[in-house]
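Hi X.,

You mentioned you wanted examples for the new student's onboarding notes, showing what a folding record looks like when two proteins sit in one file. Here is a clean example. The first protein comes first, with its sequence line followed by its structure tokens.
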Amino acid sequence: MVCICVQTITGENITCNAKTIEEIKENIETQMGIPQSEQTLLYKGKKLISGELESIEENSIINLIISLNGGAKGKKKKKEVKKTKKKHVHKKVKLAILKYYKVEGDKVIRLKQMCKVCPPGTFLAEHADRLYCGRCRTAYTKVTDNKGKGGKSDKGGKKKEKKK
């Protein structure tokens, strides 16, 4: 039997007379109420494995540590996958120039209006309420007649301020 002093986390000292480490753990369980499965004993910074107390000297101090759950790596949160907007794909249209001009006999008629600011050949895009130049970003408003033309618009409109 070896007389050993066990120091707890709170700093209390418990004296035990025992031959094995299991007897020390039983003694701590009866005095402090800590289950043996949660007890870890350290001597000179090394963990004591169950067995005899042959390397421990008389009246030496053993530290008691309580094992706690935790420290494990946590689960990763699932990230919501955002739906990405599809990129616009340019469509190749054969003979697309035929949409801009019309030939009647010897005369060539422009079907779309040209921008007044940009060089020749720059056509305006027709929207429901305006004409828009994609090159200089100028917008022209459409003027509508209320005299029964059926909502047709006058293509020569007023110039609006540039939007940036």
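Then the second protein repeats the pattern, sequence line and then tokens:
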Amino acid sequence: MAAKPKGPPTVSTVKLSDLLRITPRRCNQLAEEGILVKVGRGRFKLLESLLGRIRDLEAQVSGSGTGELREFQTRLTKAKAELAEGEAARAAAELVPLEEVEKTWATIVSRIRQQFSSLAGKAATRCHDEETIQKKTVVIQNLISESLEELADSPIYSRRDPSDPRDRPAKPGASKAAAEADD
């Protein structure tokens, strides 16, 4: 008959890690944290270590523990918050208030109206001496190109004072003088 071992049963790191379904490295970490009871190099007290791990897991589930689950949840929550803050900051930087967009488009439309309402007079003056339709067409095309280039090169700023009558978009049929007064 074999002699009974003295003292509480012990197990190796590998055997305990298999029982607890964790890695041997994690066994050593939990021993450093005081959860598992180490009795020597690579040896653990079986019952005390199992009870320690059960208590640790219970504490994690109840939320009172500082175990790995609680730590993971904290890191996850923090990461989600940082991600949401980053997305909100990007969205705020990319979004433009609707009122600002409307004012800018009103300014653009007003400038286009002004530019093209003066084309008829310019075309009449420049085409007066041209004898053929083809030459008149070229003059008109050049005037349109010049107008479009001028519009493309001019910066667009919307006015910010809603009480300023110049801030309102030009009405259809407004006179050329009124449109020029906007500039």
